[in-house]
Amino acid sequence: MMEPNLMGGLIGGSVIGLAAVLLLAINGRIAGVSGILGGLLVPTLKGDRAWRAAFLFGLIAGAALYGAWRGTLPLQLDVHGPVLIIAGVLVGIGTRLGSGCTSGHGVCGLARRSPRSLLATVSFMAVAMLTVYLTRHIFA
Amino acid sequence: MKAIISSFLIGSIFGFGLAISEMINPARVIGFLDVTGQWDPTLLAVMGGALLVAATLFPLVLRRNRALLADRLVLPTKTEVDTPLILGALIFGIGWGLAGLCPGPALAGLASASPSLAGFVIAMIGGQWLVSIWQRS
């Protein structure tokens, strides 16, 4: 069990919120990572791919920068193999079908006071909690 | 070109935030989702911090209704709650709970060069692609 990192969470969260505000104020776009990725795969407008790719490369660069600064990236993945692949497919299908993920619905949508995003966020959080309960306590 | 550079820089800020907040770490996320275990409220602090900033500043940008590098804001147009929204959220929730990974942290985590994470991202892209094909047909 790790100690909760509330200060790191609050600071990091504010940085994420700031990034969402900047993308809307400067590029006029919603910082929903699944939506940015989805539009890269199947663009709806011409010339709409470059900023999306740039944002996603930026995500990796930002994390890499933090890793270089601290000497390590905090990353502990305890699911591997088929389960991890199934999880990835479900996350891909669900975020595309449901028009958003934790950043698009959970941060940007809630900040815009969107009822759709509120309902989506409550739904995916509840199901994720149930999934963790079932996989880590009942069928562990 | 300016829009592409700013998008890259803002993406970097986002990724940096995901790393500071440790949301890049699936174990942290699972700790939050594990409400009947030793619950870890860190993710709640992250959402709180992000929403505090975004909910305060979004209205200023929305009222202006244009961006520095774009004539208009591109916002979601759907307002009604429909089946794909709920079904999608439920499917996403299962995947998120299985691995503790959602799209942002999974992509940012590629900085660690973890092959497992790369496998997850490829599967995730495959899942998105399936829906896009199905929606177009």
Describe this structure in words.
The complex is a heterodimer of chains A (140) and B (137). By secondary structure, chain A is mostly helical. Chain A has a domain at 77-140. Chain A has helices at residues 6-27, 33-41, 50-70, 81-97, 104-111, 115-138. The radius of gyration of chain A is 17 Å and the shape is globular. Chain B has one domain. Chain B has helices spanning 2-20, 26-33, 42-64, 83-99, 103-108, 115-136. Chain B is built from 6 helices and no strands. Chain B starts with a helix and ends with a helix.
Give a short summary of the structure.
The complex is a heterodimer of chains A (140) and B (137). Chain A has 140 residues and is mainly alpha-helical. Chain A is 72% helix and 0% strand.
SSE topology sketch:
The complex is a heterodimer of chains A (140) and B (137).
Chain A: H1 6-27, H2 33-41, H3 50-70, H4 81-97, H5 104-111, H6 115-138
Helix pairs in contact in A: 2-3, 5-6
Chain B: H1 2-20, H2 26-33, H3 42-64, H4 83-99, H5 103-108, H6 115-136
SS field, number of helical segments of chain A: 6
Q: Structural class, from secondary structure content of chain B?
A: mainly alpha
% residues in beta strands of chain A: under 5%
Q: Radius of gyration of chain A in whole Å, from Cα?
A: 17 Å
Which structural category do the helix and sheet elements of chain A fall into?
mainly alpha
SSE string of chain A, helices as H and strands as E: HHHHHH
Regarding quaternary structure, how should these chains be classified?
Answer: heterodimer
Based on Cα principal axes, name the global outline of chain A: globular
* Total strands of chain B: 0
What radius of gyration of chain B results from the CA coordinates?
17 Å
**Low confidence ranges of chain A:** none
